[in-house]
């Protein structure tokens, strides 16, 4: 029943004027990257998310080789609500075939994405995982190309995404002010890795909207563990497994604890969680509501932090060596 859920908190996204729900819908699972998801489940998950107050949906042509965009498009269309009621981000530059941050490719990319999403515009177009390209090309060629797409009304705002945190300062220090509106960082604000904290003052000083993704560390902080392709070290995987087992023994859920940890920092405008079922949507929204009402389970959190202490802030390599 919709009435049993208060609306999720809305938070300002930098100086975009957008207000994103604290929990955002990460649509990579709709591309079946964490296991097969039927079209019926994908559409139902999007519907339930919107019904419970999630207004932000993130995808990419890379997720499931365009499948995620198609599934999200079907889900959004089935909502049958005015376009202004939800916020959509997609990405460019990363594809199943590889990386291409050229102006020509990203300009073509948005039209392909809009067709798959069945939309006239997206709210945010991100350069996807820029550490795999030349950051100087991103500064000098990709961002100016995206600026033209913004002027053409195909995207309202521009973002950059990637794993190493230094990519953000490198690019933001070199582009004209106001040409990048948001950043999307992942796996750096969860119980096992909170290094995004150090970058928050810099991003706030530039009024950049902050999107943090993967509060469950791409499956590390779940009962069933990460997918096979997960890049974490065996040491990190087993520490997270031990933390999950500890929670289970206490009758607690590691995923709920992990999401609540990420949601607690209000400088982060929205926390993108990957969701593939109505059940996960309901659990995650309930976790946010429980946090707002009762606060965090500090006792279990400190026990889990102690278990993860030996691997705290351990990450993995991503991208090419920048010259
Ligand atoms: P995540 O940490 O959100 O974990 C997703 C996994 O957790 C999936 O297997 C999902 O089914 C599962 N899950 C979700 N809710 C659960 C619950 N209540 N209980 C148990 N399991 C649950 O990782 P993610 O999906 O990689 O990240 C979230 C989103 O952020 C992505 O879908 C994508 O939209 C975005 N993202 C972007 C980038 C990038 O731009 N480079 C990188 C990572 C993620």
TrEMBL record:
GO molecular function terms listed in the Swiss-Prot or TrEMBL record: L-galactose dehydrogenase activity
GO cellular component: cytosol
Domain NADP-dependent oxidoreductase: 23-289
One GO biological process term: L-ascorbic acid biosynthetic process
InterPro entries with a match to the protein in the record: AKR (IPR020471), LGALDH-like (IPR044479), NAD(P)_OxRdtase_dom_sf (IPR036812), NADP_OxRdtase_dom (IPR023210)
Domain of life of the source: Eukaryota
Protein name: L-galactose dehydrogenase isoform X1
Native source organism of the sequence: Cucurbita maxima
């Amino acid at each position: 029943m919709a009435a049993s859920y208060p609306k999720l908190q809305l938070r300002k996204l930098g100086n975009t004027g957008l207000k994103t729900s604290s929990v955002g819908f990460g649509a990579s699972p709709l591309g079946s990257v964490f296991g097969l998801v039927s079209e019926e489940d994908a559409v139902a998950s999007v519907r339930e998310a919107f019904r419970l107050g999630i207004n932000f949906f993130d995808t990419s042509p890379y997720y499931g080789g365009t499948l995620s965009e198609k599934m999200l498009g079907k889900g959004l269309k089935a909502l049958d609500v005015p376009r202004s009621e939800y916020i959509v981000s997609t990405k460019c530059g990363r594809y199943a075939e590889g990386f291409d941050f050229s102006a020509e490719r990203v300009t073509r990319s948005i039209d392909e994405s809009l067709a798959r999403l069945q939309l006239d515009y997206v709210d945010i177009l991100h350069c996807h995982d820029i550490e795999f390209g030349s950051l100087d090309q991103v500064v000098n060629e990709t961002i100016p190309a995206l600026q033209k797409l913004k002027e053409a009304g195909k995207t309202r705002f521009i973002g950059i995404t990637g794993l190493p945190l230094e990519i953000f300062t490198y690019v933001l220090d070199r582009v004209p002010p106001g040409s990048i509106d948001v950043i999307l960082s992942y796996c750096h604000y969860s119980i096992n890795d909170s290094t995004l904290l150090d970058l928050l003052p810099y991003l706030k000083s530039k009024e950049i909207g902050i999107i943090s993704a993967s509060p469950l560390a791409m499956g590390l902080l779940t009962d069933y563990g990460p997918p096979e392709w997960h890049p974490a070290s065996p040491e990190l995987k087993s520490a997270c497994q031990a933390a999950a087992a500890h929670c289970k023994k206490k009758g607690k859920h590691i995923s709920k604890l992990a999401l609540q940890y990420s949601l607690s920092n209000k400088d982060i405008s929205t926390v993108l969680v990957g969701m593939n079922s109505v059940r996960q949507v309901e659990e995650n929204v309930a976790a946010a509501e429980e946090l707002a009402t009762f606060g965090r389970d500090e006792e279990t959190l400190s026990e889990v932090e102690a278990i993860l202490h030996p691997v705290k802030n351990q990450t993995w390599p991503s991208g090419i060596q920048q010259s």
